[in-house]
Design brief:
Distance between the termini: 34 Å
Radius of gyration: 14 Å
Shape: globular
Strand order of the largest sheet: 1-2
Largest sheet: 2 strands, parallel
Order of helices and strands: EHHEHH
Number of domains: 1
Helix content: 40-55%
Structural class: mainly alpha
Length: 69
């Protein structure tokens, strides 16, 4: 199944998965499903980042910065 996420769903999935229902999380975590994010969503997030209205956390970078390799 193809799952097209909007900005809020993507950001919640990335940073605050408790805002997503269990059934939706199950679909997102199923390797048989394809999760899609529109280029327009990326463009919108970039504009918000440039305006200082959005900050995304990079969990991978945070782990690496703490000394884990």
């Amino acid at each position: 199944m193809k799952l097209l996420l909007d900005n809020h769903a993507f950001m919640w999935w990335h940073s605050e998965p408790e805002y997503i229902t269990k059934s939706t999380l199950t679909l997102l975590q199923d390797p048989d499903n394809e999760v899609i994010l529109s280029v327009v969503s990326l463009w919108e997030m970039q504009i918000k980042i440039q305006l200082g209205k959005l900050t995304l956390r990079d969990r991978t970078y945070a782990k690496d910065s703490a000394g884990a390799k």
